[in-house]
Amino acid sequence: MDFQAGILQDGSPMESLEKQLICPICLEMFSKPVVILPCQHNLCRKCANDVFQAANPYWQSRGSVISGGRFRCPSCRHEVLLDRHGVYGLQRNLLVENIIDIYKQECSSRPLKKGEHPMCKEHEDERINIYCVTCEVPTCSMCKVFGAHKDCEVAPLQTVFQGQKTELNNCISMLVAGNDRIQTIISQLEDSCRSTEENSEAAKRELCARFDALAAVLEEKKSELLERITHEQGDKTSFVQGLICRYKEQLEKSSRLVETAIQAMEETGGAAFLMVRPPNLPPSPPVPTIVEASKGGRLEKIEHGYENMDAFSVSLEHLAEAVRALDFDSAEEDEEYFDGEEEEAEE
User: What pTM was estimated for this model as a whole?
Assistant: First the structure.
């Protein structure tokens, strides 16, 4: 029997394997012991014996005086010769029997197909038809009468089935309703998350706008104060530059008078002495002019600390403290503000 070829022909390996394990006589899965014929086909020994008995009606038992018999393989019609032992002389196919055991074990661990009735593992021919209340497992009648559940309390399987199915249906309804509520809460939380993000972005934009406006006011005030300092600086420097020019003119006149005085001092004659005149100056007696000049000029002077600009110092500590103390309006202040607006509206 070629198992591999049969498995490859079918899409499901287990279904294909099951087809290979079907007896051609009873059309059921091989029941142990399984015998292998000389043509390499397999039969249940019981089915092989039925075929042999039908083909050899006079062969009664292994103790019969008849020396043997023959029958044809139902699969290939090959003639099978048997000795006095009959089908009991055929070799058992232990490989197929092991495959059957593995297949049944695998099937017992798989979930049942829809509409398929489960069978008892302890009593393979018994269907599961009662429910053990004590052990909380379904079982068969044989287990209750002779098996592990003979001392347990049992109930009709259909009654327990209907009760638990009704309870399960109610639980499903409650779970579905709970899931709907959870989904609603999730949607609300998602909406809240989106609103939080949008409101946060709006608050950030508003805060940036207010700080930009405050920065613009500070920049405008700074420009105004700088302009005032610049204007004061121009006035003072212009005044001082004017004084410097006048003092330079006086210095130049004084220098010429000194030269004239020195020249006059060099004269030995009285007439020559009195005739000395300062250059580039109005004609006048030199001595009185020099004497008057020696008394010092009467030009204007600047006061002490004239160059000081301390009057234009601005204290920003209070403003800096106010900026550091800036914070968001509290909810209580907002409530008081709105309460005040409502009272004004009522009045």
Answer: 0.43
